[in-house]
Amino acid sequence: MDFVLHLPVIGLLLQFVGYLVVVSVQNGNLIITLATPIGLGALCGFMNERSGVVNIGIEGMMLTAAFIAWYVAALAGQVLPAGTPGPLGITLPLLVGLAAALAAGVLVSALHAWLSITVRADQIISGTIINIVALGITGYLGLLISQNSPSSAGNFSSLSLPAGVDGIPVLGWLLNTVIEHGPITLSMLVGVVVLQVLLYRSRWGLRTRAVGEHPRAAETVGIDVIALRYRNVLLGGLLAGLAGAWFTIEYGNSFQGGMTNGRGFIALAALIFGRWTPVGAVGAALLFGVADALGTAIRQGPPTGDLGTFLTAVPPQLFSALPYIVTIVVLAGVVGRSVAPAADGQPYERESKAT
């Protein structure tokens, strides 16, 4: 009798799984696009935490870079000739805006590195300060500048496949899903592969893992722990800069205060869920991308039948919150099972200066 009573619930679950598969297949390109800032943010966190530096300031770094990319590109568009857009919609103002975003990410990361590594301040507080200051300053400046209605420099476009490729069974869908993106999204897809290989197949990767696990032992074999941590945190700033630029010169072409909407924190959840590896972190980012795309699909075109009736009865705000709900569920299920690098968050003092 109990089995029979549970059949409607099981049926709805099976329908939902089927609907989830269909949404994922039909929106594969969108899922990767939506996962880009989370994936790049997670890779930024990977560069920091594998070196032993906790960085919860990714949100602030992304927000700062998003504002700088938009504003600098807009200013460059007024004084530099845009010309005919090249491949991927590349123009000189957009390149200047992208370079400025990368520089902004590095500068904010340099501040975090100085506070965390040299000053040996509490790394959580350092990241929190970055988030608060970035939210306040960019929100104020964005509101102030928007009153003058600066002209947008546009945004990057997606790579286009040759005509007829989309029609190739399976391969066409795969190429469309993976390749037809803007340059920042493509850089994430390339970067995750490069970092994964370097982490386990290069001297840099070996040294980074050693510094993150046992910096004292790493220094005894000649590794400059301080220099390596600085270098990796600054490189992480480049990735955060890319993530911020994605918001304003690739996915969109304008800036709104707080537009990162917590994706920097979701990136940290993706890093933990991915067990501090590049592939795992970006894979987790894709999971959040699926949640985001699923919420959009349900709001715009819910399924038919009993499942559609049930989903349309749910408040639409719940679907907007799906990525954040998934973040909570993931952290609740993973925390305690994923083991962070042993020296993560621990300030390091050189042996010669130790008391």
CATH fold category name: ABC transporter involved in vitamin B12 uptake, BtuC
Approximate strand percentage: under 5%
What would CATH call the architecture? Orthogonal Bundle
Helix percentage: over 70%
Largest sheet, in brief, is: none
The overall strand count is 0
Structural class: mainly alpha
Radius of gyration: 22 Å
- Per DSSP, the total helix count is 15
Overall tally of structural domains: 1
Q: What distance separates the N and C termini? A: 71 Å
Outline type: globular
Output mean pLDDT.
89
Name the helix and strand elements from N-terminus to C-terminus, one letter apiece: HHHHHHHHHHHHHHH
Task: Tell me what you see in this structure.
The chain is mostly helical. The chain has one domain: ABC transporter involved in vitamin B12 uptake, BtuC (Orthogonal Bundle), CATH 1.10.3470. It starts with a helix and ends in a 21-residue tail after the last helix. It is built from 15 helices and no strands. It is globular. Helices cover 71% and strands 0% of the residues. The longest helix is centred in the first third of the chain and has 27 residues.
